[in-house]
Amino acid sequence: MSIIARLEEMGLELPQPAAPVASYVPTQIVGELLYISGQVSMTDGQIIKGCLGGSPAGGITALSLKEGIAAARACGIMLLAQARAALEGDLDRVASCVRLGGFVASTADFFDHPKVINGASDLMLDVMGDAGKHTRAAVGVPSLPLGAAVEIDGIFRIR
Question: Any residues with CB less than 8 A from the CB of 31 and at least 6 apart, and which?
Fold first, then answer.
């Protein structure tokens, strides 16, 4: 089943890809690899802000593990939106997800970063089946751009 057909079956519509907020390009194709810059957690055009593991100083919102997983899933959706744009609308050119790099805004005593990033990993598996299996990193950081809760970059193999 094509990625688009699977997304439709799941009731997911890809948003417009987010524009870069600094000096970088959102995607780069090198040979058969599509590199996608880090995508921050956003839904309906709004950044999902917060911190996992509690609320640090500065009035940052504490997010639950469930909210963190949803934020990572939103990053995965934006990765697919960026892939669609880079491939001129033809997501059928995506052969597999090779790697995801996940960053979670968290307190020093939060240790469930892999569970959070599963939000994006599970999305890739749901959308691509076995082709969605990938390598990855999941790390905690004290803050992310624009106050985002999660940021994920990706590498995809294309046809």
Answer: none
Mean pLDDT, 10 residues at a time, the chain of 159 residues: 92 93 95 98 94 80 96 98 97 97 96 98 97 98 95 98
Which run of H or E residues covers position 34?
A: strand 33-40
Report the DSSP beta bridge partners of residue 158.
Answer: 94
Q: Is the dihedral of CA 131, 136, 140, 145 positive or negative?
A: negative
Structure tokens at 62: 């504490």
CA nearest 84: which of 137, 156, 132, 21? Answer: 156
What gap in Å lies between CA 114 and CA 138, rounded to an integer?
5
* pLDDT at site 57: 63
Quote the CA–CA distance of 69 and 74 in Å, as a whole number: 9
Sheet strand arrangement including 33-40: 27-30, 33-40, 150-158, 94-105, 135-141
Distance between CA atoms of residues 96 and 98, nearest Å:
6
Which amino acid does the sequence have at 142? P
| 159 touches 2 (CB < 8 A) | no
Look at residue 143 in the predicted model and tell me its pLDDT.
93
Both tokens assigned to 142: 């004290």
Distance CA 69, CA 56 (A): 19
